[in-house]
Amino acid sequence: MTVTWEELGWERLADGVGRCRLPGWDCTAGLVLGADAALMVDAGSSLDEGARLREGARRLAGRRVTHLALTHPHFDHVFGAAAFTGAEVYGAYGAAGTGALFAPGGQGRQALRADAVAEGLDSRAAREAAEAVSPVRHEVRGEQPLDLGGGRRVLLADAGPGHTGHDLAVLVPGSPDVLFCGDLVEESGEPQAGPDAVPSHWPAALDRLLELGGDDALYVPGHGAVVDAAFVRVQRDALAARFGVSR
User: Fold this and answer.
1) pTM for this model (two decimals)
2) Residue 53 burial by CB count (10 A; 0-12/13-18/19+): exposed, middle or buried?
3) Which domains does the chain have, with CATH numbers?
4) What is the DSSP annotation of 84-136?
5) How far is CA 44 from CA 22, 149, 187, 210, 229, in A?
6) Which residues pair with 182 in a beta bridge?
7) Do 26 and 188 contact (CB within 8 A), yes or no?
8) Tell me: the pLDDT tens digits for 175-190?
């Protein structure tokens, strides 16, 4: 039975492209459909959330998610990753070694679990997700095209560092172009700079996003409503002022 994006509580952004704003942390998960494959952008904050995203994607695509792009290694974006069994997992260059996050028993997993609990995630759910986090099999250095079939090609771009040391953006050409920005861009609150942020490079990372998307793209932030290029420029200038980065 065919369902629409709206019937599942998703926001349609372009033909075959949509996103879901998840409860709790207002985190975005994106979906890009091709004739032969389906790409999920970020995986939610728990295995249960990842499973709900997986099922929604299956109903929309008529197939399982074949590719998963993780925009950065924070719990609210990666803890659902293990729900996407068999998917090819992509991250920015160096993400696989970030604090041993994607290595079994790695210290990064425990730090992320502690952060999730501190932010309000149930401790059991946090532990299960941390233990199960899927490894990044494909690290993107520079840019990497991905063919999803039927003329649908996306571009994965190592856009950071900025919000973290390893920020991945996903450009979906179309009418309009759609750019998934991860937490390099945030709309529902001030951009968060934790201990793994690289503030001196963050404004340049937003310049990179603007180069990728141009003036007419839809920019999808990691948290909040879809924005335009003008919003990204204002946020870039505000971050430069906030962190004392000369332009």
Assistant:
1) 0.94
2) buried
3) 6-243 (3.60.15.10)
4) STT-EEEEETTGGGGGGTTSTT-HHHHHHHHHHHHTT--HHHHHHHHHHPPP-
5) 7, 25, 18, 25, 26
6) 221
7) yes
8) 999 999 999 999 999 9
